[in-house]
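Retry 2 of 3 after timeout on previous attempt. Resubmitting structure tokens to design endpoint.
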């Protein structure tokens, strides 16, 4: 049987079942229709790669995954909007609070700079080059070492800096 006929036969039966399952699970009809159509497109594109006996199950799994991805994306979208609203509210609340936060941030930066200067020159160079160089291999080449060595050096320098910050030295 030609590919198109085989697909049409399976899809005519499967399309309604997928839509009904999604609606039973609480998905709005319009969204269920979109998910079913997306599933059909993916099934068409991957028809040859999916074993004939597994196509129904594969289509349902793809449909479920698309639904869950939309659900997660919607949650992310809501969180981003909520956070943006919170930031907007926080910005309009109190200029005194904003000034205090800037002062605290400046004090934190000054503290980090003091701790950076306590690190060895070798550690400071490694950290600076990793931040400033276009790539880790360029930073390693500037120091004349392998990039794996630079990675280890930067890891240890960051650990020392973190420990100093935590200890309040």
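Retry 2 succeeded. Sequence:
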């Amino acid at each position: 049987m030609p590919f198109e006929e085989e697909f049409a036969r399976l899809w005519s039966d499967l399309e309604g079942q997928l839509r009904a399952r999604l609606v039973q699970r609480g998905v709005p009809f319009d969204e269920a229709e979109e998910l079913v159509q997306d599933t059909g497109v993916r099934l068409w594109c991957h028809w040859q790669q999916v074993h004939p006996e597994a196509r129904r199950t594969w289509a349902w799994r793809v449909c479920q995954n698309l639904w869950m991805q939309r659900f997660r994306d919607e949650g992310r979208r809501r969180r981003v909007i909520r956070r943006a609203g919170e930031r907007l509210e926080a910005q309009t609340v109190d200029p005194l609070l904003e000034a205090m936060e800037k002062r605290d941030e400046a004090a934190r930066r000054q503290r980090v700079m003091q701790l950076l200067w306590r690190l060895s020159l070798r550690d400071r160079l490694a950290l600076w080059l990793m931040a400033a160089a276009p790539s880790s291999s360029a930073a390693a080449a500037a120091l004349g070492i392998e990039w794996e060595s630079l990675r280890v050096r930067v890891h240890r320098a960051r650990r020392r800096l973190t420990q100093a910050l935590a200890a309040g030295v």
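Attempt log closed. Residues 95-167 form a domain with the Arc Repressor Mutant, subunit A fold (CATH 1.10.10.10).
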